[in-house]
């Protein structure tokens, strides 16, 4: 099968969806298919890049077009490149801000219709329209309404052969627009590098935040209650702030120390190599995320913890969703989420995380992706 992925940017390490696209395309190539990737609005470039990249030992053909180029010029290059490659499928990796800095890619559907004629079209919705909280400004309401209009119009114009998303909430929202949607989990962009089991400390409760931090009351309360239980069980507690930007992580560190009067074992790792990062993630007892529960399935940092066999605590609940709505389609993945600061439930959650990690392994997701594409091909035969 020949598959061309289209996304906004392919700058390694600078764009989560771009990294996702490169890893998925490389895995499909390793499985005997031919996949390429096109970045149609790459803000990291001033000139076109066309050639190959090495992704985890697999050579991949890519085309990257600068965002500063006029839309018509970029469209012409994409059309020529795709005609030369002649894919069976074109896969759009949709994030509204990846295709327009204001989050309003009005011409995307029109442009895609021109370059995908005669080819099967797949869309992966990584994001939909922005959320609206109580008290939001009228500008927020307007942007959300326009983004929803763009998606509705794009679906009507393109009539895609297959649509995926990774959140139950997104599936419901797209089905509300009359679109049939399949589920596809997000895999971790951090490969698992085995470490020695003796590098994991006994009698230490190591809580990790990876990349994302947010100082909110549910986070502080969860940490405080879990620390109290750890003391009862004679455990030392370590809080690790993994990766992220230095300024933001140091600020969060000071806030934790001030609010919890816990000054001695809060550590910032700074930048880590992929191998170092994998080792630190595996050494954690528990991951803690500020991502609201209903949105867990779209978070790369949450996927990274579970992929390393580490359960995730999710204290934050969005006002528009119930506390029982956990953003995974899979019961196994949901069971790897710790909902309450209950130390006695942590052991079971760790067992569940080790069982669930196979569901978000790259090979598992790639096989599900191919299976769904194959079913469409068969149905149309």
Give me a quick take on this structure.
By secondary structure, the protein is α/β, with parallel strands linked by helices. The chain has 13 helices and 14 strands.
Describe the structure in your own words.
There is one protein chain. This protein is of the alpha/beta class and 381 residues long. It folds into two domains: 2-187 and 362-379, Rossmann fold (3-Layer(aba) Sandwich); 197-360, Glycogen Phosphorylase B (Rossmann fold), CATH 3.40.50. 41% of the residues lie in helices and 20% in strands. It contains 13 helices and 14 strands. An eight-stranded mixed β-sheet has the order 3-4-2-1-5-6-7-8, with helices on both faces. A six-stranded parallel β-sheet has the order 11-10-9-12-13-14, sandwiched between helices. α1 packs across α13 (362-379). The longest helix has 21 residues, at 138-158. It is globular. The relative contact order is 0.11.
Main structural class: alpha/beta
First-last Cα distance: 15 Å
Question: What is the annotated CATH architecture of the largest domain?
Answer: 3-Layer(aba) Sandwich
Question: What's the overall geometry?
Answer: globular
**Which H/E pattern describes the elements?**
EHEEEHEHHEHEHEEHEHEHEHEHEHH
Strand content: 15-25%
With strands numbered from the N-terminus, the spatial order across the biggest sheet is 3-4-2-1-5-6-7-8
CATH topology of the largest domain: Rossmann fold
Number of strand elements: 14
Mean of residue pLDDT values: 92
Helix residue percentage: 40-55%
Domain module count: 2
Continuous helix count: 13
